[in-house]
């Protein structure tokens, strides 16, 4: 007898949401997670522990193409990276689903339009109890239903920032967030961005989707289990070799994240699949994307007494702004960057960091990274090799320059910027992209692998483009759509 009707490898945004979508079907669902549940502890709200000592970072290294090890900053816990996410739940814009000409090249678009995914965006926003307001943002695509809750309120300094940005000619809008603000602040008055969710204040993959799935007796979670390889026979996945022993199911879903899913497929190479499982197209691990991102700190003589701060976005440059009208990207607030965070991240002396942090409002500028088959994940023995080749960097520099100029008009005479590097996962995606053409994609448009009828993928690997917004809501929407497809085929 098989261990389940369907095994899901990974409990992050894709895997947990898929389980929530499948739970009412009655199928026996087994979720395998290599990590454990995050327990509450003093370090959970301690910025020195989180950003200075890296208390929660994984005890593992990946390699650069030159063989230099680095700590990747991806997390292995129940709920995956969403346990630390900024809780931003933005839809891809309608234009993101079509080819777009950027400064650095043209994106391939998606095999279906925004309207195809729109109903599942509505459902994902309901599942994650998103707080938002679609009205003020001129780039917001059509919704089939309003946000479940109104936006998280601006703190006084951010309400003042909103007014200043409007006076400078911009169109700031509320940032859609999956946060229960009262519950988050009841634990401690800190930001949530990059802080672990140990008490359910964020609606992350564990607290929103997995908790719902596990209310059903047909859904089980097994932690501390690493899947080492997939075995095949006759074109089907027949067995998973895991740290807890062999496991079988008629359907297998990989939801381990853009890097780990690709690495598992590549490590599963055998005599019949010498380039790796599901890799007849030679696209597994390719087209790795990681948003071009910078922290931008706007300083003035005013004290910023905000606690959480992350409630505002600017999309004036999302669809245009380049020298030939090319898109530049999204700007949103970071969680409040305190002196300990700034000292740890920028290497500044404590007193200098405090002077800057007390007078800064902190922004996150994000531009699209374009797919490139040579930007890729490979494996070398047990090691993961990440060869990320940035693209579209000129667009990002233009975005940061436009933001700096606008902030100076808004009354911030000093604006500092620092780009994030490969050690900061900025929405990794694209290594097993979906598509109609089996020679140019890894899965079909629902996430079923072209090469193996019982193997599915359900995480950021599927995304054919990175757009310039946080991918969590799109991953969740794809997962709910996939759940409906699997349940329909199983009846």
Automatic annotation (TrEMBL):
Checking Pfam families in the record gives:
DAO, GMC_oxred_C
- Keyword field: FAD, Flavoprotein, Oxidoreductase
| Family to which the UniProt record says this protein belongs | Belongs to the GMC oxidoreductase family.
**Origin: domain of life:** Bacteria
Question: InterPro entries recorded for this chain?
Answer: FAD-dep_OxRdtase, FAD/NAD-bd_sf, GMC_OxRtase_C, P2Ox-like
* Designated name of the protein: Choline dehydrogenase-like flavoprotein
Ranges of residues in domain FAD dependent oxidoreductase? 5-265
**Sequence ranges assigned to domain Glucose-methanol-choline oxidoreductase C-terminal in this UniProt record:** 423-479
Q: Name one GO molecular function term.
A: oxidoreductase activity, acting on CH-OH group of donors
């Amino acid at each position: 007898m098989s261990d389940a009707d369907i095994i899901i490898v990974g409990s992050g945004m894709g895997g947990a949401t898929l389980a929530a979508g499948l739970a009412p079907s009655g199928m026996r669902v087994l979720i395998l997670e290599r990590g454990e549940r995050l327990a509450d502890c003093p370090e959970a709200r301690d910025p020195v522990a989180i950003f200075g000592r890296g208390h929660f970072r994984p005890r593992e290294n990946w390699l650069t193409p030159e063989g230099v090890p680095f700590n990747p900053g991806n997390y292995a816990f129940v709920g995956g990276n969403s346990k630390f996410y900024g809780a931003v739940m933005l839809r891809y814009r309608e234009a993101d689903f079509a080819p777009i000409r950027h400064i650095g090249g043209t994106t391939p678009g998606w095999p279906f339009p925004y309207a195809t995914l729109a109903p599942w965006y509505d459902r994902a926003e309901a599942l994650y109890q998103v707080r938002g307001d679609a009205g003020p943002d001129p780039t917001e695509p059509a919704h089939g239903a309003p946000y479940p809750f109104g936006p998280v309120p601006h703190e006084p300094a951010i309400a003042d920032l909103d007014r200043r940005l409007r006076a400078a000619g911009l169109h700031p809008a509320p940032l859609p967030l999956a946060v229960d603000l009262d519950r988050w602040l009841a634990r401690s008055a800190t930001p949530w961005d990059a802080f672990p969710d140990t008490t359910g204040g964020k609606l992350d993959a564990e607290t929103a989707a997995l908790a719902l799935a596990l209310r059903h007796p047909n859904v089980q979670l097994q932690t501390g289990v690493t899947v080492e390889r997939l075995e095949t026979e006759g074109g089907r996945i027949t067995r998973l070799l895991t740290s807890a022993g062999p496991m079988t199911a008629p359907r297998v879903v990989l939801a381990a994240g853009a890097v780990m899913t690709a690495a598992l497929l590549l490590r599963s190479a055998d005599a019949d699949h010498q380039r790796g499982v599901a890799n007849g197209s030679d696209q597994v691990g390719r087209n790795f994307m990681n948003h071009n991102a910078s922290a931008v700190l706007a300083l003035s003589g005013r004290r910023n007494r905000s606690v959480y701060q992350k409630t505002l976005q600017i999309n004036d440059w999302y669809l245009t702004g380049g020298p030939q009208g090319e898109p530049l990207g999204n700007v949103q607030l970071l969680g409040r960057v305190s002196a300990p965070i700034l000292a740890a991240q920028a290497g500044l002396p404590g007193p200098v960091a405090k002077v800057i942090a007390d007078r800064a409002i902190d922004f996150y500028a994000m531009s699209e990274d374009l797919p490139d088959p040579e930007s890729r994940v490979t494996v070398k023995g047990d090691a993961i090799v990440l060869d990320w080749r940035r693209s579209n960097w000129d667009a990002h520099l233009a975005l940061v320059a436009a933001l700096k100029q606008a902030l100076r008009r808004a009354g911030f005479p000093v604006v500092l910027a620092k780009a994030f590097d490969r050690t900061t996962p900025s929405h990794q995606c694209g290594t097993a992209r979906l598509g109609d053409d089996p020679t140019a994609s890894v899965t079909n448009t629902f996430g079923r692998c072209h090469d193996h009828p019982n193997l599915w993928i359900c995480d950021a690997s599927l995304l054919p483009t990175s757009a310039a917004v946080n991918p969590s809501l799109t991953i969740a929407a794809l997962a709910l759509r996939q759940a409906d497809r699997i349940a329909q085929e199983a009846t």
